[in-house]
Design brief:
single chain, alpha+beta, 4 domains, six-stranded mixed sheet, three-stranded antiparallel sheet, 12 strands
Length: about 525
């Protein structure tokens, strides 16, 4: 439970030391003067019991320690050690020279107590303070993503199956210790008997053994009754381990799956491609072009749908702050995602004008797909010269049909010079009739305007913001394991860079808005 008051009266000695040793222009002095941390107290109150437990450490103190930790790239232990001797830290934390600090392990407990939801609320509260200062406008949002390397060593398939088996057996041990001991002995026998075989044969036997254990575990869980309650940690651990085992077995049956588990330690991490292949997550951010403040962010698996996340980010911001964004700038991720473009531009929904580099599906100066007529059934395509074809195949994204004319139809066509630059060796003109062609046409038409050039000149701002997170705050690698923990890491990093930007903007134009509170 929380104490009624955490106010600490500083002594005259404390004030004198802080005045002499913390310069007036010190960054932490500016943050303390301009950011109202006390306003966050109500967001944290309901994660503590009002009547049970010992009086807790001040949650605002712990939140400020989190801020210092992620701003300066420190660990839990390092930030406590630094706060012990750093006078500026003590001033920022509202601690006297004699005040004691919490033990480092309390910070990890605090993060777990707040979880993803409460850290998200804190991030949104900082954005709200920036809006109240008049810094954030709704003219244009810039969106981009970067890759995050998981905090794991990626095992081979042999090791992964073994790790998943051991995790499942450990979760089963409280329910059937004798059977678990027998399965562990069987695993040892298999390992010894297959030591001289090739990896493929060794993997096959381990997968078969894991499948037997999963069948038994499914039967055991069925006898336990309804799903685990929130407080039943043993049952939750069993259900999570069993779900992971099922997923790994499914991956082994489908070697071409693009959603394969790559680690038993961090089962949420996935393989993605950002220039090169990597295993981990994506950090996806939405940034206000005026203030360069991040208004929303998400952590996706490495193979996550970054394009569809554009909708989720905008919907989150508008739901939290009640605003309406006018324009959105992205890179090429939306150029072939007509369904997402339709959702973003829907006047009954988000109603956002999207600016992104379009992809042309036909050569410049030649007949476009609009010059080709499709019959009412959508099965016969007629070209400007009157030739017809029924040869069609689904396109890559399943959003339309790829029609193909025979080479003989195009070879002697009088309009061929207006249709293609060169006749293909095995077929004639290929035309894609897309369900979302109208969205692609609007995207292309918008790219021909002067406004598009203005927006593209602003887009590098979001790339520089991602570079700041990565290069100055260690954002390339995940500190933690599991998607929600990684999300907490980047919500805190987002909070840090937003406060940096907010302080800088208010320092540049101190008359633009009153400080959130008076300096202590």
């Amino acid at each position: 439970m929380l104490r009624e008051s955490y106010y600490r009266e500083l002594t005259d000695t404390d004030r004198l030391v802080f005045e002499k040793l913390v310069p007036p222009d010190h960054y932490l002095r500016q943050v303390k003067a301009l950011i109202d941390f006390e306003a966050f107290r109500e967001l944290l109150r309901d994660v503590y019991s009002p009547h049970r437990g010992r009086p807790a450490e001040d949650p605002i103190l712990l939140l400020k320690l989190e801020f210092l930790e992620f701003h300066y790239g420190l660990s839990d232990r390092e930030v406590i050690a630094e706060a012990q001797v750093n006078v500026a830290f003590r001033y920022f934390l509202d601690l006297s020279l004699d005040s004691r600090l919490p033990v480092p392990s309390l910070l990890s407990q605090f993060r777990a107590r707040l979880g993803e939801e409460r850290h998200q609320a804190l991030f949104d509260a900082v954005v709200r303070q920036a809006r109240e200062q008049g810094l954030i406008k709704d003219r244009l949002r810039l969106k981009d993503a970067t890759h995050v390397v998981a905090n794991v060593a990626i095992p081979s398939a042999l090791v992964l199956v073994a790790q998943v088996r051991q995790r499942l057996l450990a979760a089963l041990r409280p329910y059937a210790p004798q059977r678990v001991a027998e399965e562990e002995a069987e695993a040892t026998t298999i390992r010894t008997a297959t030591a001289d075989l090739k990896d493929e044969a060794r993997l096959a036997q381990r997968v078969a053994h894991l499948r037997q254990i999963v069948v038994w575990a499914d039967e055991l869980v069925a006898t336990l009754g309804p799903a685990a309650e929130q407080g039943d940690r043993r049952r939750q651990a069993l259900e999570q381990a069993l779900a992971l085992a099922h997923k790994v077995l499914a991956d082994q049956e489908d070697p071409q799956s693009k959603d394969r588990v790559c680690s038993a330690v961090d089962p949420d991490a996935r393989r993605g491609k950002h220039g090169q292949y990597y295993d981990g997550y994506q950090l996806d951010i939405l940034m206000d072009a005026e203030s360069e403040i991040i208004t929303a962010l998400e952590v996706l698996p490495g193979n996550g749908d970054e394009a569809a996340d554009s909708v989720a980010l905008l919907e989150h911001e508008e739901a939290v702050h009640g605003n309406e964004v006018a324009e959105l700038s992205t890179d090429g991720i939306l150029s072939t995602r007509g369904e997402v473009l339709r959702t973003l531009e829907d006047p009954e929904g988000l109603g956002v004008a999207v600016y992104a580099p379009p992809v042309r599906t036909w050569p410049e100066g030649y007949f476009s797909p609009e010059h080709f007529t499709l019959d009412e059934q959508g099965e016969v395509l007629t070209c400007p010269a009157g030739q017809q074809t029924e040869r069609r195949y689904p396109n890559t994204h399943g959003t339309g049909w790829r029609f193909q004319f025979r080479r003989s139809q195009c070879r002697d066509c009088p309009l061929r010079d207006q249709c293609m630059a060169r006749l293909p060796a095995k077929h004639g003109r290929t035309v894609i009739k897309n369900t979302y062609q109208a969205e692609y046409d609007r995207l292309y038409a918008r790219a021909q305007t002067e406004r598009y050039q203005e927006v593209r000149r602003e887009h590098p701002k979001v790339e520089r913001k991602l570079a700041e997170i990565v290069q100055r705050h260690g954002g390339r690698r995940a500190r933690y394991r599991g998607r929600w923990r990684v999300k907490v890491q980047y919500l805190l990093l987002g909070l840090v860079v937003n406060i940096k930007r907010l302080v800088k903007r208010l320092q540049e134009n101190p008359t633009a808005a009153a400080p959130c509170r008076a300096a202590a």
